């Protein structure tokens, strides 16, 4: 191995440690400002795409919350979409249940026999989103006690089973509409008004998720879940409360996914278990693919991966209808075969300086030298 | 003063194989105790039993007078008993300094402590200990790219960062450049004398263990063969036979 490539791989792993301390530079401020400005003006400049961009922010949230558990902690969950669906149903049931009988509402054929007043609508959404977040977190804690006994592929399959099972169970549960679904209370205003309202909530939630995770990764928690990723047995031997960290990480992931579910249900206007609430093979797989594409275990990777993936997805859906799944499949295969470290991971190898990664090249060369000669210490 | 670790009549089998049979061992506080024996004699199994890695079939293990044979690895670690691994284990993608920081003791860690940043005193202590093992210069490198010997030193420093009462070291000198073994012995002795940490050491290198330990236990075929101070063990015919393969 040449010194150059060694340096590159070193740099990446230094960055992957997450807590490499760096000051906020002017570039950072510019980038944050650019994203915030885009987020605010986008629905004004592109009013026809407000819904698509709102979904984009949810995709960013999906990738980030998956990366918390899959990238930073090394537990590859295939069932995170469960919390999205759980949040969606909790939010909807709350919105309805606060003001009328849920069973009667869901069993009426058109679902529209009850009219929500403007005030009732907003109270319902506010309380529903809060309960969705809390409820999804509580479910994560309860399930965590069971599935965190599983490692590696068994964890992936176990969580996948939860998401698939949930869709079937809710489909058989008449009180929440069963497989027929539930029509969501109607937004008291114009279609544009609704689009802007939910756009603002989606954007705000995605930004809050990013800010929260950025803070979280700067605390001891960030290092602890990285340690679990690198060697869980060692972490146990050093006395780290591994189950506590794993459970909390999943609950945080579920908290934001629960809100996302509540928002998406309201944006869609109608929810049902298999396609909207627990879409394992679309959103459920997308969140993994987006994090891998951007670079798992990095702060910006999931964000970039989600944006690119969403743009490619929407473009192929619009212009190459019929080939969209092939296109996504090709991207995933190229990603897995040729740059597993993802785009941001690759950029960190290429330009470590841009990421504030300091690697003393002489020391790196020194270590490489030691190893080449097979020296100890 | 009572013993820090008291192992009484411990038996551990894997299927039909008896890895440890009726072992009794005492580790005195403040001392360096050695554990030797030929390959496959059950040393690491005994270590694993003590730190709670697997349940024991029979017997009792006490740490500071408290029965620990039913506790789990993390609980025992938080009591102040830390072990290092024969196949050195560190967090490969984290830098040296982060490996040190994550090793702060979790003895009294409350739920809220998870979300606090590391304090200045933690960083200073981490850097001090990295200097103690001679890795300060390489503290920012991903530890997975250090040489095997350096990783061993890092693992040792991480164990010290955990402020244990007792440190169980599984072959600390294996794989280390012979010319640097003396430096390591010196550091182990200083950890014992300056930091007041009791050491319980598995070691293959006879020169090292004779130089280091106050008291030595020798295992063979899963049974306790002999025990006593280094001079006695060195001249014990049974120990010599075990090592030379005589039966």
Describe this structure in words.
The complex is a heterodimer of chains A (377) and B (247). Chain A is mainly α. Chain A has 2 domains: 1-22 and 279-372, no CATH class; 42-278, no CATH class. Chain A is 72% helix and 1% strand. Chain A contains 17 helices and 2 strands. Chain A has helices at 3-16, 26-45, 50-70, 81-97, 102-107, 118-147, 152-171, 191-216, 220-230, 232-237, 242-268, 273-277, 280-294, 301-319, 324-338, 342-350, 361-372; strands at residues 182-183, 270-271. In chain A, helix 3 (50-70) runs antiparallel to helix 11 (242-268), helix 9 (220-230) crosses helix 11 (242-268) and helix 13 packs parallel to helix 16. Chain A is globular, with a radius of gyration of 22 Å. The two termini of chain A are 20 Å apart. The model of chain A is unreliable at 1-21 and 371-377 (pLDDT under 50). Chain B is of the alpha/beta class. In chain B, the strands form 2 sheets. A 6-stranded mixed beta sheet of chain B has the order 6-7-8-3-9-10, with helices on both faces. Chain B has a 4-stranded antiparallel beta sheet with strand order 2-1-4-5, with helices on one face. In chain B, strand 9 and strand 10 (223-228) form a beta hairpin. The longest helix of chain B has 16 residues, at 178-193. The model of chain B has no long low-confidence stretch (mean pLDDT 91). The chains are: A mainly alpha (377), B alpha/beta (247).
